[in-house]
Structure formats: C-alpha cells, structure tokens
Records
---
Amino acid sequence: MMQEGAFREANPDSHDRKLTLLACGKINLCLDVVGRRPDGYHDLRSIFQSISLADELTLRVMPGSDGIYLRCDHPGVPEGPANLAWRAARLLLDRFDGQAGVQIDIRKRIPIAAGLGGGSADAAAALLGLRKLLELPISDGELARIGKELGADVPFCLRGGIALAEGIGDVLEDIPCSPSYAVLVVTPRLHVSTAEVFRAFDPAKVDRRPSVERMRGHLERSCLAGVAGEMVNVLETVTFALHPQVAAWAKRMQELTPGAVMSGSGPSIIGLFADLDHARRAMAELEQEDVFLWCGLPAPRGVREVK
C-alpha cells in the first residue's frame, strides 16, 4: 500500500473521477470585534467579499484505493494533515465514504497567511468537490457545519459572494447586491500571527468602529464613496503597532484611493476602485516594490468548477 500523503500519478487506464475547481479568496470590507467568547474566540461583525483571485484544486477520487494524497506547487504549504483541504477530505471520508482514495493537487495563487482566506477557500473547494465526486447526500447546511470544524471562514468560502458575518464569522447573511468596483490587493512579505493579534486586541484603544448596517446600505445602492467611508478594521490598532510596515502600506494605499483597509488580521491591504482601469493604474505605481500585487473583480461565488 502506498503511504498516505505521497502523491500518486494518475493511471490513464483507471476509472478515477476527476474535478477541477477554483477556490476564491476572501477580503474584509470592514471588521469590528464586538466581544470575547467564553471559549476564547472573539465575536465579530464584518462584511466578507469573495474576489476572483483563486487557487486551483484538482480532485481525483480513486475507487478501490484508500488514503489522501496531496501536493501543492507552493513550498510553504503543508501537504499532510496540517493542510485544511487534506483535513476536509479526511472528514468526509471518515464520515461518509471511507472506501475511496483521494488525490488533491493545489496550484496556489492566493498568498499564504495573508488575511485572504486561502486555506479556508481550499478547504471549501475540497468539501464541495468531494461531495459531488462521491455523490454524498450532504445538504449545504450540513456541509457548512462540517466546514466550521475546519475554520471560521470555511462556511463563507463555501457560498461566497458578499455577506454580513457575525459570531466567529460563521453566522452569515447574504447581501443582495452586484459590486461595481475593482479590488487592488497589496500583501507585504511578512508573517502576521492571527492568534497574536487577537490576544493583543484592546477595545479601549479603538477610536473608530465601522457600521456594517451603513456599509450594507451603501453596497445595496452601489455607492462606492459610502462604502469607502465605512472601510474600518479595528484590528489595525494591533497589527499596525506590531508591524509598522503594514501601517506604511495602508497609508500608501490611502494615497491611491479613499477606499482602503487591512483585510482580516493582515498583512494584506485592499483598495477599492471605480473600475479595473483605475485599479491597474494604481497597481502600476507599486510594481517596483517587493510585495505581492493583484487587481481584479469581486467574485459572485466562493467556489466554481473549471469546465
């Protein structure tokens, strides 16, 4: 038997079933921390938005085999149980169909540990893809509950689009709108510990909080200026102090557009622009810098199949 975790090349004569999916990244248009829970997590109020920056996952189910075999083209991504997509596959196989083997091939495009939900997006794609390939009788609600076991952002990544998020980010309400802006992402090349940021968060140091209700109204009316005015992330009070480079990039983005904010706990900074031409011109001003840069459009779903 092949050792679990070692990637097996496909046999062209086999009856393996295969599916390729795009797993979209996630940004926070605003983020407020409204309390600390007894379990140590924090209650949030945020607006999540899917973006078309996406990892590509190819899933292959191997009847008559067993185990989970994962590989990724990014050297910083774990290829075993520390990978959320691997764990998503393990959960489904253990609960519903332990008689098949699974291969997962990830082409990584979302920067890792960037506040863009890349690991959660990959887990969501693995859950949706394997539900289809294995023909599992799992409702969307049950899949979301399984996703929550993997991470707070996974339930949103399963559905995508744009939503008001509460709880730890798992209580979601879709916002009925069609965003008419483009997004620029700047990710400095440094590591920010989400756990450290939340541990250090002090509500007394927050002098401005976003209104998700006002933000929602501006989104529904396609008022970009109003959206920009509510782009506030209270975790900036921590991350900017711990990592002055992130604060400097936020200031740089604010010079390019009034609609700028840190995503999640950082280090990515996002900016909203009226259209792709404006976003591309802003990105061109930063291309000589040693940062990850991307611009593109919001995505209507969290995961989509590549035909």
---
Amino acid sequence: MIQKEVAQRICATVGDMNLLAVSVQFYATPKIISYVSKNCFWPAPKIDSAIIKITPRSQTFRPTGGLTSPDKFFKIVKAGFSQPRKQLGGNLSKILKLEKTKVEEWLLKNNIQPTQRAQTLSIEDWKNLTDSL
C-alpha cells in the first residue's frame, strides 16, 4: 500500500509517463488493485492510499530478441526526462552530448518525432532507442 498519487504515477500510461513509471515498468507490470480512503484509519492521515500489485517480468528482453542493457537504457531515459517540458531531441542531444542532427536521425529511424516529449514514449520506444544507439 502506498500513497494514491505515487501509485498513479507508477501505473502511468503513454502520454503521462514519467521517470518513476518507466523505471518500474522496465522491470515489472504494475496495477492498482484498490484505493483506500484516509477515513479508514485512526487517526486519519492527510492522504488516500492505493494497493498496487507489481508483477516482475521474467525478462527485460525485446520481443524480437536481444537484451536491453539496463545501464544504457536508464542513461537514455534519464536524458529524455532531464527537462520533461522540453522536446526530446534537444534533451537527448544536450545530455548525451550528441549532434542534434544525429539525434534527430536516430529518433526518426525509430518513428519518434524530435519534437515529442519524453512522456509520450512507451517502454518499447525507449528499448528500441537504446538498442539502436
């Protein structure tokens, strides 16, 4: 059982992704089982809670084969989320110290627009980026 808002962040879907969600979902599949009202406790806390189930993945392999290196994966993901309100192309270029044109080619090769933001990418998109760098 954890804070409701944290549970929602962990279970985020594409469009609302964040570094915490990507970190958990790389290794496991999270699911909110139930919400628990703050009124169920005495003394009542100031926040509601959620019960989440986190089912570990048997592998972090891509469906097409090949193992995604966690170190490389998280280096790229952290670079992408370094400034969440900024565009992905700029974040990756700046943090990974790569030429902007090379980053744009790399993103387009993976069907990702350089103008997208990190929260719009799925776990599979991040794995594809990692494997193709």
---
Amino acid sequence: MKNNIVDQVKQDDYLKSNISNIISFAKNRSSPKFSAFLDERQRMIVQEILNALKYSNYKFFGGVKDCDRVMLGTFPEGQPVQEDCFPITTLKLSYSDKNAVSHRDCLGAIMGLQIKRESIGDIIVQDKFAIIFVDNDIADFININLDKVGRANVKVTVTDTIEVQKKQEYQEINGTVSSLRLDCVVALLLNKSRTIAVETIQANYVKVNHQESQNVSKQICEGDVITIRGKGKFIVEGPIKKTKKDRFFITINKLL
C-alpha cells in the first residue's frame, strides 16, 4: 500500500508539472494546447492549478457534453475557446446483437493493443454499437488493428458526434442512517453492517469525490460522489432530511 501511495504522489506531481507547462505554452504562444484525457480525480487537481494560476481561457471537453473523462484545452488570451479544436476522434464500433459487449470488453480490447489509458476517453455502449472517444494520434491505429471486442467481431468507423448522445441511467436508493458518517452511508449502499462498511473503507476500496478515504467518520454531504470498488459510483442527492427519530433520510443515485 505504501508503494501505491508513493506511485500516486509521483503521478500527481507529473500531472501538475505537465498542466503548468500546458498553461504556460498557451500563454506564450499563439496556438492552443491540450492535455491527455483526465479522469474525475485528475480533473479536480487540474482545476485547483487553474484556479491558483488564475487562468480562465480554458475548457474541459471529452467529445460530447457531460463526459466523465475529458481533455483540458488551454487557449491563448483573446482566442475563442472552441470544442472542434480538441484532438478527439469519435469511433463507432459496430457488431452483431448476437454478441453483446460491455464497457469493460471495449476498454480491454483497446488497451490490449498496448494503448495507454490516458489516450482513451469515455466509452458509450449502446444497442449493436459502442462509441469511443480517443486521442487523434491513435484513431487510425485502432481503426486498422481492432477487429474483435469480447466475443464480437467489430467494424470500426469514424463517426460524427452530432448523433452521439450520452444517456446516463440511475438506480435510486433511499434509506435512513443514524449519522452522515462515511461508514454509515457505505453500510446503506452495501446493505451490510457498519462493521463490513468499516472494513471496506479501511481496505482502501472507497473514494469520496474521486479521492481515496480511509476516514470512516468523514461527514457526507449533498452532492458528494462515493465510489466503492466493485460496487459502482453513487451520487448523494438532496435534500437530506432528519426524521422524527433523529435519523437522516437520504436519497442516493447509483450510476448504471
């Protein structure tokens, strides 16, 4: 675990240095500069850097609206921020409905081509096809080399994002907890005892707002995002209400 923490610190330091360079490039040159794809945790770190440097001519974009994985685009002062400048290609993977594929199948197949995760954006799986946002530099390589995902034979084509719609479905979870502590909320989400919840948190299986937390007494608020490894991502909805028995009634949406 200690090695994992050290590795994470190194990765964060590299990210901060890289983002600072990207911002500096946009300030001093006449052309925009873009990062690799960022996950939600990395995006929070990048946002802190942007705020600290008081840099405002930027945009986070992943190919369509509301992507989880996005690139940072920094633009020179006075230049309009344009989504069509981002080096993102939208690929469509078509396959027979006899062999349905999952998000994991698509990601595994692409990374099996020795492509780094940072070059891959969101993956949207729909009926008979999947949409994948990728860095322009690897689009042709995937187009040529990817012919199978899971058990399905696939045909890869470049498509227009105008026809792409990201539809996020949720499962609503309602319940009461004695406290808004993390262990109480995780117990509700797992439908297990607080003892199991504490063990899950202390095993580093839980993230709050995209950052690992082993603090079982951490207070949870409306809008917090809780991720439990192997169980999914959950968003705490509001308002949180107190019951007559001095408990807290909460509504949580599980992303499907």
